[in-house]
Write a structure and sequence with these properties.
The structure holds two protein chains of two kinds.
Chain A: E1 3-15, H1 22-30, E2 36-49, E3 54-58, H2 65-72, E4 80-85, E5 89-92, H3 105-115, H4 120-134, H5 149-160, E6 167-171, H6 179-193, E7 198-202, H7 206-212, E8 215-220, E9 223-229, H8 230-242
Parallel strand pairs in A: 3-7, 3-8, 5-6, 6-7
Antiparallel strand pairs in A: 1-2, 1-4, 8-9
Helix pairs in contact in A: 3-4, 3-5, 4-5
Chain B: H1 3-33, E1 34-38, E2 46-47, E3 56-63, E4 67-75, E5 84-91, E6 94-102, E7 110-120, E8 124-131, E9 142-146, E10 162-163, E11 166-167, E12 171-172, E13 174-181, H2 184-211, H3 217-243, H4 252-272, H5 280-302, H6 304-307, H7 309-312, H8 321-347, H9 359-383, H10 387-400, H11 416-419, H12 423-437, H13 443-467, H14 471-474
Antiparallel strand pairs in B: 1-13, 2-9, 3-8, 3-10, 4-7, 4-9, 4-13, 5-6, 5-8, 9-12, 10-11
Classes of the chains: A alpha/beta, B alpha+beta.
Chain lengths: 243, 475
């Protein structure tokens, strides 16, 4: 069992007026004015993911899909319950969030790679592959601030998908750049996901979920609506939507 | 964790500890056995008058403890004089010691230390008689005296000095240096033995736990360190590369900044306020580099969590990595600023001694202090963004509360306990003793410096650990 989520719940405490000053906080605390509203983003979610499985998560906006992914990758701590993850998790959340625009493409490959948890030897070995995939050529030694936004996305995608992790977290299949690069990047994603690693996959495209996933979890308002074999869950999910 | 690697690491740690303990004893052995104290000197009021061949200056002084030397505050009229000052210490008719001072070695308006030939252990009143048998007018030195006051702090304060048998209105500026035996030197090797044993037992337990596959706190830390070392290296490199990225002089600024700050302060404090500190340039520069490191490191760690919000909300990395890397990257800068310090050491002809080997210890303590304070601030910053503005003011106050450009002696006695709470004070003081005096500080200074760095570190780590899970909700 590579991921085991045991009855996890996550509660946000939202204060009505967000206080962000010491004075304000003290004043409000003294007046007894600080009120919180509890919001359960996840409630009693339990599941297990086997090694090599592609595990899909579906649900409407605000159902808690991204929150669940954050809990599994360790960014958020569940309020109650526990998650055990055996293996290194590579999140493919937002591309290029670790880039520094003052540094060159080459330096950013190493920086962003390190943030994603790759080892130094791995990056050195895959460096040429990353540059080749990004099609940046001689621009690799130019500071990122001189890149076009498409070039930045291409570099980010190339770094993020060079991995061979135990667990890959994919929040929507990313297709970036121009038409030809989009095709290339989509093919790369598919290749990654069918390559034997455990994948947690969130998408609004039911077609992709049906195509890729073995097991699907359907979340609704933070609660588990259904979990089971991919086609079956997707049928119910779509059936409900068509009603 | 790889068992063999861990074994190797433990062996290195034990051997390293033993070597360091030996090295420390070689550097500081003398100071671990004996403590040197200097009594206070009266503040100068005026000079006696030029001391020439037919003059005799007499001063009664109180001896207490094992006296090994005395200091006089002399003036040379801003010229190089020739001849000697003959110092006699008399107890009744017996001459306890006879010292000869070459006046050409005396500096204007500065204390001059004269070691005794034999330490005097008996206490009581003795007479210090000073003559200058070879000196002629316009080629002689003089000595300062201070006014007699109600409180007795000074060995010469009881009675006025006599010039050619006539009392003058004050007592000579004299201070005595005593040497006292302390216990620490005798128990040093026992302490080292006990610590080594503790370290050994700890290593064995660690190895055993690792073999059984248990995870202890230390193992987790080691594991995280080996796993995130590459990331830390990259983040430090990033900070360092981007700092001077688009400036013309680039990394030269790391050298120039402390030098320029020192120059400005040196000009101000050596012309506007005459400072009596010997080797003021070095005194100042040590204070300046330490404080700028503290200020830069804490300011950078302050924003380490808030500034990396986009990463923290997306990728899981242990959160302490961010403050730690910020402190490390300012430490790189600090190390570079030690180069101009070395330059000033060479220019001022300060002798380079073994005690310079204590500098890495000072750096480690300073880093621990910065990390502790920084982690505290980083946590506070997440919840209250006011922290950054408040810290600017606190930092300014802190600068004035630390003897960076003024001598410690101007601190008023009743505020002294307050100043001793300042961790930076102890660290800078240790640094100065090791570099400027060329000797290891006394054992107490080691203890104070360690406390001054470890207490804030512990506090910072605890607060950070307790609050880190809530960070993400406020970013």
């Amino acid at each position: 069992m590579i991921i085991k989520a045991d009855d996890i719940s996550l509660c946000y405490r939202m204060s009505f007026d967000r206080v962000s000053g010491i004075k304000e906080y003290l004043v409000q605390l003294l007046q007894g004015k600080i009120q919180y509203q509890e919001f359960w983003a996840l409630k009693n979610v339990s599941f297990e993911v086997k090694k090599g499985e592609v595990f899909g998560i579906v649900g409407n906006n605000g159902a808690g899909k991204s929150t669940l992914l954050k809990v599994i990758s360790g960014i958020l701590k569940p309020t109650t319950g526990s998650v055990s993850v055996n293996g290194n998790v590579v999140p493919m959340l937002e591309l290029g969030s670790g880039f520094d625009f003052e540094l060159t493409g080459r330096e950013n490959i190493f920086l962003n790679g390190a943030i994603l948890g790759y080892s130094e030897s791995f990056l050195k070995e895959k460096y040429d592959e990353i540059v080749a995939f990004s099609e940046l050529g001689q621009f690799i030694d130019v500071p990122l601030r001189n890149y076009s936004s498409g070039m930045v996305m291409r570099l980010a995608f190339s770094v993020a998908t060079v991995v061979n992790p135990d667990i890959l977290i994919v929040d929507e299949i990313l297709a970036v750049g121009d038409a030809s690069f989009q095709a290339k990047s989509k093919a790369r994603m598919m290749e990654l996901m069918s390559g034997g690693t455990t994948v947690l996959f969130v998408s609004h495209s039911i077609g992709q979920i049906r195509e890729m996933c073995d097991t699907v979890l359907w979340l609704d308002h933070g609660q588990m609506k259904m979990i089971g074999e991919a086609q079956e869950v997707c049928d119910y999910y779509e059936g409900l939507r068509h009603e | 964790m790889d068992q063999n690697k861990l074994k190797k690491g433990c062996a290195i740690a034990l051997a390293g500890f033993a070597v360091l303990a030996l090295l420390l004893y070689l550097i500081g052995g003398e100071q671990f056995h004996y403590r040197e104290d200097e009594t206070d000197m009266l503040s100068q009021v005026a000079v006696v008058e030029e001391i020439t061949a037919d003059d005799t200056v007499e001063q009664e002084i109180q001896l207490n403890g094992n006296v090994v030397g005395l200091s006089l505050l002399g003036a040379t009229y801003n010229r190089t004089n020739t001849g000697t000052l003959e110092l006699e210490l008399l107890n009744g008719d017996t001459v306890l010691d006879h010292l000869s001072v070459d006046v050409s070695q005396m500096a204007d308006n500065q204390e001059h230390y004269v070691p005794l030939h034999n330490p005097i252990t008996e206490s009581g009143t003795v007479l210090l008689r000073i003559t200058a048998p070879e000196s002629e007018p316009d080629n002689a030195v003089t000595l300062y005296y201070g006014s007699l006051s109600e409180e007795r702090k000074n060995p010469a304060e009881d009675t006025p000095a006599k010039l050619n048998g006539k009392e003058i209105n004050g007592a000579l500026c004299v201070s005595l240096t005593t040497k006292t035996k302390i216990l620490f030197g005798d128990i040093y090797w026992y302490c080292v033995g006990v610590l080594l044993a503790v370290l050994g037992i700890f290593s064995l337990r660690l190895l055993k736990a690792n073999e059984r596959g248990e995870t202890t706190q230390t193992l987790k830390l080691l594991h995280a360190f080996s796993r995130y070392r590459f990331l830390m290296k990259q983040l430090v490199a990033r900070d360092f590369k981007t700092k001077y990225k688009r400036s013309v002089l680039g990394v030269l600024w790391s050298f120039l900044n402390p030098l320029l700050t020192m120059t400005v302060q040196y000009i101000i404090f050596s012309t506007l306020f005459r400072s009596s500190i010997p080797n003021f340039a070095l005194y100042l520069l040590i204070g300046v580099v330490c404080f700028s490191f503290f200020s830069e490191a804490t300011n950078m760690t302050l924003s380490s969590i808030v500034g990396n919000a986009s990463l923290i909300t997306k990728v899981y990395v242990p959160k302490y990595i961010y403050p730690v890397t910020r402190v490390l990257s300012s430490a790189v800068n600090f190390l570079l600023s030690l180069v101009p310090l070395l330059l000033v050491v060479l220019i001022t002809r300060t002798p380079i001694r073994f005690s310079f080997l204590l500098i890495p210890l000072v750096i480690l303590c300073l880093m621990a202090l910065c990390l502790g304070v920084g982690m505290l601030l980083a946590s506070a910053m997440v919840f209250f963004r006011d922290t950054q503005f408040l810290w600017g003011v606190v930092l300014m106050l802190w600068m004035y509360a630390t003897p960076i450009f003024y001598p410690e002696t101007i601190l008023p006695d009743r505020l002294l306990p307050l100043f001793k709470c300042n961790p930076l004070y102890h660290i800078i003081r240790f640094f100065r003793t090791a570099v400027m005096n060329g000797v290891s500080p006394e054992p107490k200074a080691y203890a104070l410096m360690l406390l001054a760095s470890l207490i804030p570190l512990l506090l910072g780590v605890l607060v950070f650990k307790k609050t880190q899970d809530k960070f993400i909700l406020y970013l």
